[in-house]
Each structure stands twice: as structure tokens, then as C-alpha cells.
Amino acid sequence: MELITKKTTVPQLLRNAIKNIHPETDTFLIRKVKEKWEEISFKETLAKADAISAYFLEIGIKKGDRLAFIIENSPEYVYYDQALQQIGAINTSIYPTLSEAEIEYILNDSGAKTILVGSPFLLKKVVKVANSSKELIRIIPVFDDFEKITEKIALNAGVISLENVIKEGHSKLDGFENEINHLRDQVLPSDISALIYTSGTTGVPKGVMLTHSNFVENVKVCLQQIPVIDSNETFLSFLPLSHVFERTATYHVCCAKGNKIAFAQSLELLAKNMGEVKPTVMSCVPRLLEKIHDKAIKGGTAAGGTKAKIFLWALDIGQKHREIKEAGKNPSILLNVKHAIAEKLVFSKIKEKTGGNLKFMISGGAALPKNVGEFFGNLGIKILEGFGLTETSPVMSVTEYHRQVYGTVGRVIPGIEIGIQDVESKNFISIQNHQSFNPNFTCNEGEICVRGHCVMKGYWNKPDETAEVIDDEGWFHTGDVGRFFKGNLQITDRIKNMLVNAYGKNIYPTPVENTYLKSQKIEAVFLLGDKKEYITAIITPNKETLQENFGLKDAFFDTADVFIDDAQIVDWIAQDIKKFSNELAKFERIKNFKIKRNPFTIEDGEMTPTMKPKRKVIEKKYAGAIEEMYLNTIETD
């Protein structure tokens, strides 16, 4: 029996899983309370969702109303979302890192009627803008002692804890149960399921309208492309559910298959949580994988001597073994024996730190550097890369489990077309779909366009902006540059990121930055040089490595000076700039750089909530330092 059809909606995914895959008493959600991981069943999840739905109906919430969230990943997010989805309301998630002004804008632009608030810190933000949010009628904290924050403020909206919402809703459920069931049946695939506001590196946030069909079709085809996901997986969730990637790749997939979702306590405790939960699948971002890669390399080689030799020998064996298997051949008996030794001495110890049970990790949000993907492949940890945007629900392509092409983001998913359009002529260089896949096909690069079931309904209240990105033939223009390589999609960069030097040479920063990020001394690279004679960069050093090499205390990073001028540290970084510059064309090489003491941050307005640097903000903020870099050059080649 096919569980996901053209008529399936988001609230039906979980109920289908309970009816056909798992009994309602099985565990669905897992959270850590104090020192203990607590399990929450499907039955308890839906009971709380039904109670919240009843409360919504009691206060007059109707189909199509927007209900907001500002909360970290948690079971409460799931209860609330399931509750609103089944009565046809629209999930309007707000990144917890946004400023008060941005929160106010989203509440007003969406016309949100309620907002679920995850912490006292976030509630303080919300109450400051609540009275300016014209449609807001309820503020719902997930904690009880909210009165300390709200008691001295005359709020137009009522404030009630989620616990009391559930209690009140439960007491009213008998009167609303039939209506809830009726409303769930009336939700159409074409109805809007969510408004997700794009973070945007420039301009005002835009509410992306994603339908039930957008989400459900995306889940369906991703499960077709990765059939190894079975109904007994445990996902560890740490990427924000306010972002479309985690919502689809973890939450909605788990609803469809009835998988367990364990919520990580925080990014800082992620490694500890992985060891405790022992997940089989995780969604992640390239930067996390880069950090694991850097830490593993450092840990394996720092001691030098025999230990380092064994580590490097194991990686070499892992690479040879992987390449032979990926070529469709069988490794020799001797290589298999060596690989078993490498697994026991090195690989198994690294895998233990991820919990030891990982089938694979799904990487999205940005392109994963090729060398990092190969490193995990050498260890026997499979990384499946995916690509997409908020506007595409999000997945447009994803790596097939049995066919890995490092440095690419996988095969086109079923049911859509991806076109590569020449940036200047606007002619299509190539249009590919799932069926046309050819492992030997490669084409020139251009803008990536997509057409099909994954494309959003449009931007909320912004028809002109919608028309700018979706053309008359239904192609959504992503603004990303890429090509097909060995049949798989390969990302080059964003069109807006492209630098054109004074000699007319086009330079895409991401592949250049990734080359320098091979250095264990460097945490981040921000490339500059548009309309300039040469390339410069703002570089953030790897804090831990810097401290170890120069015996620095934390106070070194707390000083007011934004940039590090110490000649020894500059020379130390310059050594690796020079080393890795040899891998690049001369016009791509960094000729001068500034070392930023601390990373760019969301709080300082330099990064989007999805951790992409805001180019215009950074260039304006550090204009003086950037200008200084073009007065003198450092010889790197």
C-alpha cells in the first residue's frame, strides 16, 4: 500500500505511520531532562496536538490563520505544529536569533494570531514588540514562570503557558473532536502549510509560501532516492526546525516513516548527545563536518611518531579501499585485511564519537568541500549531500546511497527538472531530470533553475518579487551557479557572490575559500576583490589551534581590537596562504589579508540565521580595513 499519495497532507503523514507502520504506544520523540533521556509516544504526541487544536478553535483560530513559533527544537514544536496543521492553520516560524525589529516585521507581515515562545530570553524580545503586532491575540510560553517578565507590561495579547493551553484544550476536546477530524480532512495539498521567512543577505525578509504538497512530495521523492531509510531509524535533531532543511529532512521524514526524533540539547553538547543517543541518521551542515574532519586530523597527527604514522597509513588504506569499491571492483584479499586493521585501530575510534551506529549523514545548506567528503568516505562514514533552497521545499537533488560523486550534490530528484541557464544569453545549456541521469554527462556552468513540484507557491504579499524569480514558463531562478558533473549537480557559488576583478576575470569565492580552508590554522575566509586588481580576504583563525601555538589565553580574544596585528601570527597564517595559493589560478590567489580576532556573528548583523555572511554589511562595516589591504600586498605566490 502506498502511504504517500498526491492527496496526502502534512498532518496525515504521522497518522499514516501510526496506522500502518508503528503502534501508537511506540516512541516517537526523545528529549533529555536533567540527566535522563525521556521517551514520548506517538499517542502522547497526538493527544497533546489534539488538545492544542481544541484550544485554537475555542479562541477563534480558523483555516488559513498564521500561527508563529520562536522556539528551539523540542517536542513542544512538534505538538504545536501538528495541532495547527490539522486545522488548516499556517506554521510561521521565526529564527530565535532574529532581532526584535525583525520579529516585529514578521509578526506584522504574516498577521500572526499566536506565537509559541521557547525561553524567557525570547519572551523578553516578544513582549517588547507584541503591542505593535496588530493581529496577535495570544503569547504562549512553554515555561510556567512567565509572569516575572509580563506582569509589569500592559499587553494587548493574552499570555498563557503551553501547559495550560493543553489543559484547557483537553477539557474542551469532546466538543471539538469531530470538528478537528473534519478540518483535517478538508486540508488540501494545495493549501499553504508554512510561511518560512528567508534570512536574506540583503533586503527585507520574504515569507516563502510552501504548500502541503511541496513538503509531502519532497519527502516522498527523497525517500525514493534514499530507500535505505527504514522505519526503525533514530534521527538526532540539532539544526533549527525554523529552517526548511531540518523540517523536511528530519521532522517530516520521521513523520512519514514513524522514525524516532531525539532532540540535541545544544550545539555545544552535540558530541555528548551523539554518544548517548547513538543516532542512525543525522542532518548536518558542511561546517560541522569540517570541524569533525579538522579535529580528527589534529587528534590523529598531533602526537607525531608511530601514532601519527598509523593514522596516516589508515587514511591511505581507506582511500584505496573506497576508490576500488566505488569503481565497482572488489578489493584484493590483502587490501581487505589492511582495511580491517585500519578499521580496528583508527576508523572505529572516530565512529564511536558519533555514537557508532550512523548509517549516514545528510549534508545541506552549502556545498561540502570535496576533500572533507572524501575524508569521511575513507573512514567508511557515508555523507549524502543535498541541494535546495527555502523556495524549493527544499530538496532539488540528493546523493544516491549507492553512487557517490564527491564534490557534487547528487542526482535530480524525481518529478522535477533542473536547468542550467547561461548567465549572459539566458539560453539553457542543459535541462536534466531524474530519468535522464547519465553518469558520464558533464556540461558548462550557468545559473541553476528548477521547475516542478518542489517550487514554492510564491512570496507572501509580494507578487512582484515572486514574478522576479519564477518566470512565465514556471522556472524558479535560484541565483546559484552550477553545472552537471558525471550526471550529478555541482554547485559553484551564488551569482551575487561573484567577484569580477579589474581585468574582467570572474571569481566565485566559495571554491577559492574552500581551498584555503584546508588549512588547520584557518576557521573562515571571506574573499574580497570586486573591481579590484587582486584578491584580499578577511580571515578568522582557528581559535584552538592559535591558542595552542602561541600560548594565548581567552582574554586575547576579548580585547577591543577587531583585527590581530601581531607579526608572528600574521606570518604563521601567511605560510598556509602561500602554500594553498599554489592550487589556484594566479588571479584567484589572496594577495593580502586581515586576521579577524573573532568570527562574524548573527548578533552583530554580519551573518544570516543560516550562517551565510552578509557581504554588503561586512564590506561597509570594515571598509577602512579593506581599503588598507589594497595599499600594500603580501607576496603569496
Q: Report the mean per-residue pLDDT as an integer.
A: 94
Uncertain segments are none
The name CATH uses for the topology of the largest domain is Rossmann fold
Helical percentage? 25-40%
For the largest beta-sheet, the strand count, sense and barrel status come to: 9 strands, mixed
Question: Pairing-aware structural class of the strands and helices?
Answer: alpha/beta
* Ends distance: 63 Å
- The CATH superfamily of the largest domain is known as ANL, N-terminal domain
General form: globular
Q: What's the tally of helices?
A: 20
The radius of gyration is: 25 Å
Fold and architecture overview:
Keywords: ATP-binding, Ligase, Nucleotide-binding. GO terms for molecular function: ligase activity. It holds the Pfam family AMP-binding. Residues 27-460 form the AMP-dependent synthetase/ligase domain. InterPro entries: AMP-binding_CS, AMP-dep_synth/lig_dom, ANL_N_sf. The strands form five sheets. Strands 2-1-11-10-12-13-14-15-16 form a nine-stranded mixed β-sheet, with helices on both faces. It folds into three domains: 10-187 and 238-270, Rossmann fold (3-Layer(aba) Sandwich), CATH 3.40.50.12780; 283-356 and 358-458 and 476-494, Luciferase, Domain 3 (Luciferase, domain 3, Roll), CATH 2.30.38.10; 498-629, ANL, C-terminal domain (GMP Synthetase, Chain A, domain 3), CATH 3.30.300.30. The N and C termini lie far apart (63 Å). The model has no long low-confidence stretch (mean pLDDT 94). It has 637 residues and is of the alpha/beta class.
